Amino acid sequence: RFEFRVPESLTRWRITVRGFDANGTVGQKSAHLLSDKPFYVKWTSPDWMRAGDAPIASVAVFNNTQTAQEVVLSARGAGLSQDRKFMAKPGANFVALAIDALKRDPDGGTASIKLSLMNQGKTLDALVAPVAVRPTRFMRQSSAIIDPAIDSAIKLPAQASRVSVSLMSNAAAQFGRVAEDLIDYPYGCVEQTASRMLPMALLLASLRSDQAALSAQLSQRLATARVRLSFMAGANARFGWWGKDTSEDPFITVYAYYADWLANQALKQSLPAEHWQRLQEVYASSGFKAPLAQRALMLHFMAQMGLPVTSLNLKLAQDLAKALQAASGSQAGMRNSPIAADDSLPLGALDSELVYAFGLVLAQHTANGNTAGNGTTGKSTTGNNLPGIDAAILASAQATLLASNVPLARALLVLTGKAPDGEADKLLPKMAVHGATLDRAIALVWLYQRGVQKGVGASVQATLDAPWIRHSNLFGHATYRLPEGVSVPAALSTKAGAQAGTDVGTAAVISYEMPESAPGNLAVSMSRQLYRLKLQSRLEPAPKKDSDSKGNTSSSSGNSKARTAASEFATRTSQFSLIPVAESEPLSTRELYLEQIELKPGARRVLQQGLVQVALPPGASMEASTWGLSVQFPGSKEVTPLNRALGEATATGYVVPVQLLRDAPLTLTHLLRFSQKGSYTVPRARFHLMYQPGEVAHEQSVDQSLERMLVVN
Questions:
Q1: Could you report the per-residue pLDDT of 650-677, keeping only the tens digit for each?
Q2: Rounded CA gap, 355 and 164, in Å?
Q3: Per residue in 296-311, pLDDT tens?
Q4: Taking Cα atoms as reference points, which of 375, 447, 440, 374 lies closest to residue 417?
Q5: pLDDT in the model for residue 150
Q6: How confident is the model at residue 467 (pLDDT cuts 50, 70, 90)?
Q7: Dist CA 52 CA 99 (whole Å)
Q8: At residue 698, what are phi and psi to the nearest 5 degrees?
Q9: Are 569 and 486 in contact (CB under 8 A)?
């Protein structure tokens, strides 16, 4: 007999005992035990809310005895102060707790709800349910750079939240920070998956022999990303922007193959040459029609992979030279088309002088054969292997890049050896977490090829004083986070490490979030309507009878009966009418709803790679399927089947990728359910261009507000 203390988990455990004696006889015995309590409490509401929400929370009280007993449930914190006395019957007992307005804890971003269950003054069970408190508006990431040696003052907007600081002592540490941000990026379209694979491949290739454990973890994550990427391939092993649900894109296809090629090198694997040669067919069929900067990158990647691109690259350079001459001679609007710091250079503004200059300088670098395809240090671009291209145009293109502050343009200057001294040290801190993932990943590759990255783990030894809290990631780099609800210090106070003479950091990158404060200016009209589904009829086809060649019916065999039943099940459907729901009308947890979002482009402009973001109240969810339902919209006599759901669920709502939006309106429909009663403040839906995130349109409202109220009964 022996005793032991089990972890605080109510579950079933398996115990296995193995034994042997001096004669070599072996044996084993397994048994199960249940760690349980006569009474216990469980928080059954969502684990997140928004500030100011007034939910009717649900708590389950389990009585595992055979008799009903009178108990008192006490709830404190986050706006709650209630004591509920009731008779707990055997089994599960659900108790509703109304929270007037959810409040954060004084020292953090959560709302801690303390529950205790008592009987005759004795505590039967107690727990603390932490509820994450989300903002009532969509947030946008921003960053600032501080040099502690010059000015350590922290100057952030008053509404800044989720503030964190990364101290960087050298380019290698800064390289690691950007790489880790990309690896941990939350979304996962084809481009973002490939942009996550590139830094993983670079870091894996740079590990030392004594970092075997880290190598194993990184290899596993990279292999997993490769599997995810392969699942998103479409017909003929080509890729769309958001996987199989979007049409093939030659640039995204080449980029995905390039990421997989680098991953194979880092994992020391190889694929047949025919696998990579598919890209020649991709470029020949549709790649040559892509925007000029994208063509330049495609040929640059293909050249690194050992594919012949000389003649294709020369034709591209000629097209770029003509476009650059036309842009230089056009009105100032074309020449100085603004590109924001977080816009993507190849996927954002496609017709500016900077974009053409970028493409031409890259084409020259590719022509000179300095692609560093094997991961070694690249060489400076020298000479001109682009016959027929005027040297003055090439010089003008390089001057345009030198005058730009766009990170990817500056990274190209580093790659070609034309950047000012110390450019990498200045560039890496500017590659903030809110920049385009594509641009940051490509810039990292180019800096790596110029020898910037020297290994994982070369992080600054300085630390920050309280109230900053240190968090270390997989690669050993530290990030200091400020607890929610704590005021931002006036200055950054660092202290050196234990070793004498330790560098306290040449740069501090401060990342933070800001709530949207005004409706977007993108010329897109966005409307949103909710409908309640009302069942009209359930359509079930009449059973079919088997017949012979003369039309005589006969009894069906077992297989025939099975086929008939399967056919009836496949064609069975339900027909619903749609009842419009006013914005002020309460919703019900017992109903199924259809949400319809319509996007109408205004100006004559083709919008690509957009994302619709829809916020839902806690407990609400988007149905991943439309279940074969057919609906009849108000004012229509037609009954139409619902289209397949295109949205992807997020922690607080769902998103819908929009690959292309041109003259005609686009309508999106999704089924919704609401399971948590209460009153909620929800951000209004928004549409933004992923590679020009400053281009935003919001759901229309009478008062132009960015929030809406929802009541769920």
A1: 999 999 999 989 888 999 999 999 999 9
A2: 33
A3: 999 999 999 999 999 9
A4: 447
A5: 67
A6: confident
A7: 10
A8: -115, 160
A9: no
pLDDT at 377: 43
Distance CA 405, CA 341 (A): 8
Rounded to whole angstroms, the Cα distance separating 584 from 37 reads: 45
Within 379-422, residue ranges assigned H as helices are 391-402, 407-416
- Pair 528, 702: CB distance under 8 Å: no
**Is the model's pLDDT at 500 over the cut of 70?**
no
Higher pLDDT, 504 or 597: 597
State yes or no: pLDDT of 380 exceeds 70.
no
Whole-angstrom Cα distance, residue 201 to residue 584? 52
In this predicted structure, what is the pLDDT of residue 456? 56
Looking at the chain, the whole-number percentage of residues with pLDDT higher than 90 is 54
Confidence class for position 549, pLDDT limits 50, 70, 90 = very low
Sheet with 161-168, side-by-side order of all strands: 139-146, 507-515, 161-168, 478-481, 469-472
Residue 356 neighbours by CB under 8 Å, 6+ apart? 292, 293, 320, 323, 324, 327, 397
The pTM score is 0.84
Q: Is the previous residue joined to 130 through a cis bond, with omega within 30 degrees of 0?
A: no
CB 411 within 8 A of CB 174: no
User: What percentage of the chain's residues is helix, strand, coil (to nearest 5)?
Assistant: 25, 30, 40
Q: How far apart are CA 301 and CA 677, in angstroms?
A: 53
Q: Closest Cα partner for 686 from 663, 645, 652?
A: 652
Q: Give me the DSSP letters along 36-48.
A: --SEEEEE-S-SE
- The DSSP bridge partners found for residue 39 are 63
Which residue would you say has higher pLDDT here, 340 or 61?
61
Integer CA distances (angstroms), 557 to 560, 564, 570, in order: 5, 11, 20
Distance between start and end Cα atoms, the chain: 54
Q: How far apart are CA 50 and CA 679, in angstroms?
A: 11
Both tokens of residue 10? Answer: 């109510």
> How many angstroms separate the CA atoms of 332 and 592, rounded?
54
* Cβ within 8 Å of residue 9, ≥6 positions away: 35
Spatial distance between the Cα atoms of 533 and 592, rounded to a whole number of angstroms: 6
User: How much is the pLDDT for 545?
Assistant: 53
Alpha-carbon distance 697 to 705, whole Å?
13
Residues 6+ apart with CB under 8 A from 458: 170, 172, 173, 176
Residues in the chain, how many?
713
The answer to whether 245 and 644 have CB atoms below 8 angstroms apart is no
Question: Which range, 159-163, 181-185, 685-689, is most confident?
Answer: 685-689
What string of DSSP letters covers 497-531? -SSTT----SEEEEEEEEE--S----SEEEEEEEE
Cα–Cα nearest to 672, from 589, 576, 601, 605: 589
Q: In what order do the strands lie in the sheet with 573-581?
A: 620-622, 666-674, 593-601, 524-539, 573-581, 630-632, 640-641
The predicted structure's pLDDT at residue 337: 56
Find out whether 654 and 646 touch, Cβ atoms under 8 Å.
Answer: no
Q: How far is CA 249 from the centre of its chain?
A: 20
Query: CA-to-CA distance for 267 and 222, rounded, in angstroms?
Result: 8
The C-alpha atoms of residue 502 and residue 482 are separated, in whole angstroms, by: 24
Give the Cα separation of 476 and 479 in Å (integer): 10
